[in-house]
Specification:
four-stranded antiparallel β-sheet; 35% helix; 390 residues; single chain; globular; alpha+beta; 10 helices
């Protein structure tokens, strides 16, 4: 299912960095139920054994009914600009409209507060079985060998989503494997034949219940929290599939207002609601924006560049497996299915923006013509008076 984090090393790295730079442990206060007292922990990571060491574990009074607070103290350089901490947090509130965020920047006494734009939490993503179109050979070998008492056919039905009895039969026949043979007794060549056969059998797309998009209304609400603009539009594409993995692409555009008029568009990239700040040129999301013909939507666009004007573009990829270009999770890989959905979302939002801009242009032209007529009304009035004598 869709997760914000998938590897679990982020908080560990943050705690380790705090320990290395200040020597101070992670301080945690947590309570799961108002009927129970809160617990206070101080935690340190042992870098030799890569294991946690609990220094303090005690009950404390806390005026919060339930929740968790984590404190880290670390040394670092707080810089401004596109990759700054405040830019990251400001983008985070756009993709998480249910979040109320308060933060204090160094040398700025007043805290910055973003009130929540939605009172309901997003629905929880449901876990589904892997789809046969996206399974790797190594994972398939492990599935077969761990099925101690069931047949190959039953293993395929139980292990994958959208695999029925007839589809499992087709896979076994295509691989030249007896459907009633024990799955754990297959050798490597037989499993490889099943893996190749899975790619040739037509299987329904996996269910999209494992993916939770933000939604068009909440994308607009998030953009309104961040930008003082005159026009907002959002598009959520229908669920699609790449390599058996369901995904949803969402796009939002903010135009006009106080956005700078002579700068390239502000492109914000998100994967599972998390902002991506680095390697924009290597990301499929940026590539989709570059490949879109913004001139068709009444925007200026130098060849091979971002559109110029008071516009901010929001792109979000929600998926059970986001194909990043590296372990750093800084840019999305250029899968054709992803690029296609991103461009379709941008084009649909661009058409709505173009309709708005053309309507505004017509209204401005009508107002200009009216002002010209109004300017000559006194002259016309006096001329008609001389002609008619009235």
């Amino acid at each position: 299912k869709q997760w914000r984090g998938q590897q679990g090393i982020g908080i560990s790295a943050a705690g380790l960095y705090a320990l290395l730079t200040t020597g101070k442990p992670i301080v945690i206060v947590s309570r799961t139920d108002p009927a129970h007292s809160a617990r206070h922990y101080e935690l340190r990571i042992n870098t030799r054994t890569n294991s946690p060491e609990v220094l303090v574990d005690e009950a404390v009074e806390w005026d919060v009914e339930h929740g968790t607070r984590v404190e880290l103290e670390m040394e670092g350089t707080c810089r401004g600009g596109r990759t700054s901490i405040d830019a990251y947090l400001e983008q985070t509130v756009i993709a998480n409209p249910h979040l109320r965020l308060t933060y204090v920047l160094p040398k700025v006494p007043e805290p910055v507060v973003f009130e929540r734009a939605a009172e309901e939490l997003p629905r929880e993503a449901l876990e589904i079985k892997p789809h046969p179109n996206g399974v790797e050979l190594g994972l398939l070998i492990r599935m077969m060998h761990e099925s101690k008492t069931i047949t190959v056919k039953q293993c395929l039905i139980d292990s994958f989503s959208r695999v029925s009895s007839s589809i499992a039969e087709q896979v076994c026949v295509g691989a030249g494997v007896d459907p009633l043979e024990k799955a754990s007794k297959l050798d490597g060549d037989q499993v490889e034949a099943i893996h190749k056969s899975l790619a040739t059998v037509k299987v329904l797309a996996p269910p999209a219940s494992c993916v939770v998009p933000i939604g068009e209304d909440l994308v607009i609400a998030g953009l309104k929290r961040r930008f003082d603009a005159e026009f907002f539009v959002a598009v959520t594409r229908p669920p699609a599939v790449y390599r058996g993995n369901p995904f949803v692409v969402e796009c939002g555009i903010a135009y006009g207002g106080k956005l700078p008029t002579d700068e390239p568009a502000d492109v914000m990239r998100f994967a599972n609601r998390v902002p991506l700040q680095y390697q924009p040129k290597a990301c499929a999301m940026s590539e989709a924006v570059y490949q879109t013909n913004w001139k068709a939507y009444e925007m200026q666009q130098p060849k091979g560049s971002l559109p110029i004007g008071p516009v901010a573009v929001f792109l979000h990829l929600a998926s059970v497996w986001v194909p990043f270009t590296s372990e750093a999770k800084e840019a999305v890989a250029h899968y054709p299915e992803l690029l296609r959905e991103m461009k379709l979302a941008l084009q649909e939002a661009g058409r709505r923006l173009g309709t708005h801009l053309r309507a505004r242009s017509r209204a401005e032209n009508a107002q200009k013509r009216r002002s010209i007529f109004e300017r000559y009304i006194p002259e016309i009035g006096s001329a008609i008076s001389r002609i008619t004598g009235e």
